[in-house]
Amino acid sequence: MTHYDYLIIGGGIASLSATQGIRKRDRNGSLAIVSNERYPVYNRPPLSKKLWMRGHVEDIWMRPDALNLHAVEHLTTTVTTVNPRDKTITDGHGCTYQYSKLLLATGGTPVQLPFQDVPILYFRTLDDYFVLRRLAETKTKFLVIGGGFIGSEVAAALSTNHKDVTMIYPEPHLVDRFFPQDLKRIIDAKYLDNGVKLMANDTVRSLTGNDDLITVMTQNGKQFDVEAIVAGIGIKPNQDLAQAAGLTVNDGIVVNEYLQTSEPDIYAAGDVAQFHYPYPDQKGRVEHEDNALVQGRVAGENMADANKVYSHLPFFYSDMFSLGYEAIGNLDHRFDIYADWTTVGEEGVLYYLHNKKVVGVLNWNVWDSIPKARQIIKEQKIYDDPSELKGAIQNT
Fold first, then answer.
1. Is the domain 322-389 a CATH 3.30.390.30 member?
2. Quick one: fold of 112-231?
3. What are the domain boundaries of the chain?
4. Which residue in 331, 340, 328 sits closest to 374, CA to CA?
5. Kindly report the CA angle at 280 between 327 and 330, in degrees rounded to 5?
6. pLDDT tens track for 135-189
7. Do 347 and 366 form a contact (C-beta atoms < 8 A)?
8. What is the pTM of this model?
9. What is d(CA 44, CA 36) in angstroms, rounded to the nearest whole number?
């Protein structure tokens, strides 16, 4: 049985950041990453963004060995059990590893649709990117199911590459949960102007394969043919290992402010971790790169006895044709929203207020202002008149 001082399950950004956090405090402790990926750690966001417009696959690698982190990597290896009592894990090859400290950075699995007879690409991994690239070389007509972050980014990427794209989603607008009504209409118009067909307030009823085509029937009775289907309808956290090990789970692996699970020597970070989100006060998961980077690093440092509280407020970003944004905090279209536009729909800052306090900021085509936005949220000042926020970011 191989023993590691530090053992990490998962091969994503949170895993690599944890490795960096461990090595910041302990250069010599034995360390291993066990991942069911067949690639070393890579940066996931470019798969639906930058790689379709510019850049090269080689740019996304984040190899631990190249960073001199001295970590053993067990790739294409699935962990089947975690035993907190013996401090061991067992993989699908029958190998058992013992640990002193364990991190669960297991991420999530795409939610799937009940259509098994036709191929649907659930876009999430590097292999998915390669598959979609190959499809784009030979296919023209694509259906994108889902109008959230991944669906909207993939649709824009395919459309930019001169594909005929139809989107279907149950909400009234694209990325419907996050933006106010006027901005959602602007986003919809941008997609329509770029030739994307939008089928809002609708879902897929049936899919039927027919030679090289797939016939789509929607709940609203519309029928059309496509050549390939991509789905981005969210993920479910990979919490089964933790649950079977007796850890506390609740739409993710529940952690305390030090990112410890209900077993003190087992930590969790990244998409799978449910942690205290302060603005407004709630428990939640954050499925974005910045959270994985910082949360993973803090978890790694704490595994090496740093005893740090995770208090970072993560940001996220997206690109949709010529539109782009950076956002931080809690964006919910049901909150009060104060819009400080320079040019409506083109450039501005939107402030999301809950109980008269800013809990989220959307920098719409406004860049490099996340630190100021984060500070405004952390101040938790009461704004009886939200217009006091005018110029708070853009004029600084």
1. yes
2. FAD/NAD(P)-binding domain (3.50.50)
3. 2-109+235-303, 112-231, 322-389
4. 328
5. 20
6. 999 999 999 999 999 999 999 999 999 999 999 999 999 999 999 999 999 999 9
7. yes
8. 0.94
9. 15
